Amino acid sequence: MHDGKTVAVVVPAYNEEQLVASTVQSIPDFVDRILVVDDASRDGTAERARAADPRVEVIRHETNGGVGGAIVTGYQRALAEKIDVTCVMAADGQMDPDDLETLVHAVASGECDYAKANRLFTGQAWQIIPRYRYLGNALLSFLTKIASGYWHVADSQSGYTAVNLETLELLDLDRIYRNYGFPNDMLVHLNVWNRRVRDFPSRPIYGVGERSGIRLRRVIPRISWLLAKGFFWRLWQKYVIRDFHPLVLFYMLGLVLFGGGIALGFVETGLRLAGNPIPFATIVLVALFVISGLQLLLFAMWFDMESNKQHTAGALGERDLEALRALLAN
């Protein structure tokens, strides 16, 4: 227990027999339950996990459901047992167990509803994280800010999180994306329910024998499309159905004008390349559409930021500053 609250850690695992035992053994003593979700592994992941710690319960999937599906299974078990704080740690040893207490304390103390690790708080990330993954993370983090409305949150691909029981009870877990886009889609759903989300500094860990199944050329387009759908779903659910906000009109009109201006610009450019003259009035119309649309989109984003400020848990506290200083010192 921590701060009088029961704590569970969900460990999604797929073919992680080399690292799952050391990961489980590194989980602090204040954690009451360790829920290892074996996502149809073809190796000895389940056996290694069971033998590693008496707190472990292995939940096995008969078919592979993706990392998000494994996390949802763990969340559902924690819900059934009414666990107060449920965390997620990967089985591959890439999440520093020393950071777990910070995440748990933030949720258990009521400081926020959902705490997540952010490996980008310090300059270490650029040196430690492989460059192609860092740049892919940066792009997806930017898109996730727009889609989720949590403009203060970065490192969207971090799955090192803690969430309280009330939030899990609110979420429709069956709707959340089950694969590598799970943490991105989770943020979209959290925003619809106006949950308080906060980032905490975390030390990035690489080169411990982990194997990544992520292929950015496939993952980025897939998650980008997921975020586009999530963006419009969030606007509809939050700003139309639950409570109307004019930012929806700004977004829609801005997209129409900006998109129409870009499309008209391409058409006119094609006609000009084909040798046709372009009237000056048409050029002005294209510029007007693009500039007006861009301005409306920027206003909509600003409205969205202001609307979601109340769901920001606040600036770094002394506890977080100490953790950040320790990261910088290493």
In brief, what are we looking at here?
52% of the residues lie in helices and 12% in strands. Helix 1 links the parallel strand 1 (7-13) and strand 2 (33-39). The protein is an alpha/beta fold.
Q: What is the overall number of helices? A: 12
N-end to C-end Cα span: 29 Å
| Chain-averaged pLDDT | 89
Percent range for β-strand residues:
5-15%
Going by helix content, strand content and strand pairing, the class is alpha/beta
**Rg of Cα set:** 22 Å
The tally of beta strands, per DSSP, is 7
Main sheet makeup? 7 strands, mixed
**What level of helicity do the residues show?**
40-55%
Give the ordered list of helices and strands: EHEHEHEHEHHEHHEHHHH
Overall 3D shape: elongated
Question: Strands, helices and their partners?
Answer:
Blueprint: E1 7-13, H1 20-25, E2 33-39, H2 45-52, E3 56-61, H3 66-80, E4 85-88, H4 100-108, E5 114-118, H5 124-128, H6 131-148, E6 161-164, H7 165-170, H8 182-192, E7 197-201, H9 216-242, H10 247-273, H11 280-307, H12 318-329
Parallel strand pairs: 1-2, 1-4, 2-3, 5-7
Antiparallel strand pairs: 4-6, 5-6
Helix pairs in contact: 6-8, 6-9, 8-9, 10-11
Describe this structure in words.
The protein is α/β, with parallel strands linked by helices. The chain contains twelve helices and seven strands. It has a seven-stranded mixed beta sheet, with helices on both faces. The longest helix is centred in the last third of the chain and has 28 residues. The protein is elongated. The model has no long low-confidence stretch (mean pLDDT 89).
